[in-house]
Amino acid sequence: MQISGYDVKVNGKYYISNGVFYPEQSGTYIEFHGHIRKIEADIVGKSVGYPAFLAIMVNDTEKLCAAVDNASWLIDDADHVKFFEVKNGYDHSVLYEGDGEKDITVRIIKTTEEQYGTVAVQRFEDDGNVLPTGERDKRFLFIGDSITCGYGIDGVNGEIFTTASENFLKAYPYLLAEKMYADYDTLCWSGDGIISRWIPDEEDMPLRVSLIPELFRKELQKNAPRSDKYTHIFVNVGTNDASYTRGIPEREERFAALYNAFLTEVHEAFSEAKIYVVYEVMERSLAPVIQKIVHELKKDGMRIEYLNCSGNYALDAVDGHPSESDHRALAERIRGYLREI
C-alpha cells in the first residue's frame, strides 16, 4: 500500500522519509476503502516517557455514505474501533481481520501527541484493492495545548497522566470537525503557551522551552506534503500562560504583546482563513486580555472572532482537564457560534 496520496487519503500533519510514514500530530490519519480481509503493518515506536497509541476504525462504506451528519466516524457510532499501544522499537501488528465480503472504509488514526511518543510505519499491507476516500470542502486548523490534544480524557482527576488516558477521538477538535464534515490539521502540545509553559505554584520563573510561537514557525518552515488552505483556524492558547501571569499586570502586558504578535503571524501565514479564538474552558483570568486583543485586531481588519466558551464544565478528567462530556459540550458550543456567525 502506498501512503502517498494515491492509494489512501492522508489527513493531518505527517511526513514521509525513505518510504517510511511518520504521523506527527494528534488526529493524523490515513483513510481508504475496499473489499479487505486483513491489514498488517510494520511499526517502529519510540516512547518519550509514554507510548503512542493508534486507533483503527472500520465502517461499512455504504452505511457511511448514507450517514446523516457524518455521525458514523464518531467513536460511539463506528462499526468497529480498536486501540493499539505502539511498542517501543519494532513490532509487526495485525491491525484488522474481517471477512472481505463487503466494501469497508478504514481510518487508522494517531490518538496521542508527538511529544510523548512517536510512530514510524515502515510498511502497510492489505489483501484488497484499496482506494482513497475523498477530500472535504472545509479544512480546519486547530492550534492549542492539552485541551486540544484530549489530555487525560479517558481518566479521572487524581490519576497520574499516561498516554493511555489521552484520546483525540473524544476531544472537541475531532468532534467539531466530524460534525461539520471538515478535514483538519492540528498543532497542539500539552503544557505549552505563548509566554511560558505550565509551571507549578511554587515556581515563579517562566518556562520558555519550545513555546507555541516557536513551534508554529518551525512548522511553517517544513516542506509540507501538500498545501494548507484552511477555511477556519481555531486558537485555544493561554491556559498554561496563566500559571505564570497570575494576574500580575506587567506579566499580562508581556503576554498580550506576544499573543497579539502570534495571532498576527497566524493570519499572515493563512490570510484566507478566518480565525476563531476559543477560551474560558479551564481558565478565565486572561480572558479580558485576550478579548481586548481580538477586538483590536478585528477593528484593524483581521477576520477574527472571540468565542466565549465559558460553561459549567465538570473538569474531572486527569489533572482537572475537561471530561468527555465537557468536550462534547464545547464542540457543540463552538458549532452553535459558527451557525450564528
Distance between the termini: 42 Å
Sequence of secondary-structure elements: EEEEEEHEEEEEEHHEHEHHEHEH
The count of β-strands is 16
Q: Which CATH class of the largest domain? A: Alpha Beta
Largest sheet: 6 strands, antiparallel
Secondary-structure class: alpha/beta
Global Rg: 20 Å
- What CATH calls the topology of the largest domain is Rossmann fold
Mean pLDDT: 93
Please state the second-level CATH architecture of the largest domain.
Answer: 3-Layer(aba) Sandwich
Gross morphology: globular
Q: Helix amount, in percent?
A: 10-25%
Question: Could you characterize what this model shows?
Answer:
This protein is an alpha/beta fold. The protein folds into 2 domains: 124 residues, Jelly Rolls; 203 residues, SGNH hydrolase (Rossmann fold). Helices cover 24% and strands 30% of the residues. Strands 1, 4, 6, 7, 9 and 11 form a 6-stranded antiparallel β-sheet that branches. Helix 7 links the parallel strand 15 and strand 16. Helix 3 crosses helix 8.
